[in-house]
Specification:
about 450 residues; alpha/beta; 17 helices
Length: about 450
């Protein structure tokens, strides 16, 4: 379920957006997709009809938006079948094995942003060059650059992105004596994540019993790091996470949050985390675009209208997450697969996915379409997410990606959880994280 895109500590459940053209009951829980309904037959039949397979992970939203059926209507000779793996950590090793053997690949493969640099550096020759199919200028500039080789080859067309915001429980804020208006909350954290922790201390003074300011210090850490261009690697491909200013800032803030007991210490997307949303025991959650659906689904109807969304702390825009669609050269229908990718990632189709499951488009052309531009989330007090996320998406800095970003982020997040849950001292947790990362990345 994508909904469950678990690389780099990321997971999600999604909700249908309450746009201006939708009813008040537009939020719903979508199903898991761990089982495959794809066919291994991708060859043409005697009548020239073909089946294209799309392999992906979690939830890309194409079924929910009815796009495969629509494509068949537009191209009666083509049937599209989806092969979905729930957990990206299971999906990716299988993809590497298939690329290495040159067999078993789908016509279209989903590619996670935490893996894209490794694929660009080591597997680009096994993907079709989509620069000959799509116009890369249609995307936010930093998105397509992530999937582009040094010589200009594009191995993936951008699907969604995760512009950052802050979700907060207005009922808990009110009980703690904090402002609930989204503009007033934004003003309180305008100075950055340091201000966010100060707000957390204000919350703690009058917090309702049994509640916490934030869900997870590791989530805040990921949000802090995501707002910086340099994170775990430099432009030369060298791992710099031990000395990275953004990593140091994020780590220190996470350690402070754990020490001051501002966090409930729950690993995001775990069963206890979901239960905490339902019971309203955490007041804020760092909110990339896809997180709103996770909150609405797990908090449930009883908490509808109690949450709101405001801009993320500080003045620097941030992105957390996102994916691509690539076309392996070993596929039997490379040309047709490329045309499908072009269509699926066009503005109208990205807007349809946004309306269906809340994945925010990476194609700029979608931002001016009504279903995106005027989109609001009824569950979150009609927060104007179309406007909020579009403005942020256009100013997100280009991030320097590395081949093992996902592993580094996951390992650090695990040790931050240990500081929260086990009381591990920051120095010991950092040593454990760096030892594990060094072994993993060599």
């Amino acid at each position: 379920m994508r909904i469950t895109r678990t690389v780099a500590g990321r997971s999600r459940r999604v909700a249908v957006l309450a746009t201006t053209g939708l009813t008040a009951s537009a939020l719903l829980l979508t199903g898991c997709g761990s089982d495959s309904d794809s066919s291994d037959d991708t060859s043409s039949d005697a009548n020239g009809k073909i089946t294209l397979t799309v392999a992906d992970f979690g939830q890309f939203g194409y079924k929910e938006a009815g796009l495969f059926e629509k494509y068949h209507e537009l191209h009666p000779n083509i049937t599209v079948k989806e092969d979905t793996t729930a957990d990206e950590k299971v999906y990716y090793p299988k993809l590497l094995q298939q690329l290495n053997s040159g067999s078993g690949l789908a016509d279209v493969q989903g590619l996670e942003v935490g893996r894209i640099k490794e694929l660009v550096d080591t597997k680009a020759d096994q993907f079709a060059d989509l620069s000959k199919v799509i116009d890369v200028n249609e995307w936010v500039s930093w998105k397509e650059k992530q999937a582009t080789t040094k010589d200009g080859k594009v191995i993936g067309a951008g699907t969604d992105i995760g512009p950052m915001s802050l979700c907060y429980n207005t009922e808990l804020f009110k009980k703690a004596g904090l402002p609930t208006d989204r503009k007033e909350v934004a003003a309180k954290i305008a100075g950055g994540w340091e201000d966010y922790l100060k707000l957390g201390e204000e919350y703690k003074k009058n917090a309702p019993e049994g509640t916490y300011f934030m869900d997870s210090a590791s989530a805040m850490y990921n949000a802090v790091v995501s707002s910086n261009a340099k994170q775990y690697y430099d432009e030369n491909g060298e791992a710099i996470y031990k000395d990275s200013p953004s990593v140091k800032q994020g780590w220190n803030l996470a350690a402070e949050a754990a020490d001051k007991k501002l966090t409930q210490g729950l690993a995001q997307f775990s069963d206890p985390w979901k239960a905490a949303l339902r019971k309203s025991t955490m007041a804020t959650v760092a909110c990339p675009a896809w997180m709103a659906g996770q909150i609405s689904v797990n908090a449930g109807d009883a908490n509808k209208g109690k949450w709101d969304i405001t801009t993320a702390p500080g003045a620097t825009a941030a992105n957390w997450g996102g994916s691509f669609l690539g076309v392996p050269k070993a596929g039997k229908h490379v040309k047709e697969a490329g045309e499908l990718v072009k269509w699926l990632t066009a503005p109208e189709q990205q807007a349809a996915v946004f309306e269906a499951i809340g994945s925010f488009p990476s194609n700029k052309g979608a931002y001016d379409l009504p279903d995106v531009k005027t989109a609001k989330l009824e569950y979150f007090n009609n927060a104007p997410i179309g406007e909020l996320y579009a403005d942020e998406a256009k100013s997100i800095p280009e991030t320097v990606l590395g081949p093992k970003d996902g592993i580094i982020k996951d390992t650090i997040s695990t040790q931050i959880n240990n500081m929260e849950q086990r009381g591990t001292k920051p120095d010991d947790a950092w040593k454990a994280a760096t030892n594990a990362i060094d072994k993993a990345i060599g």
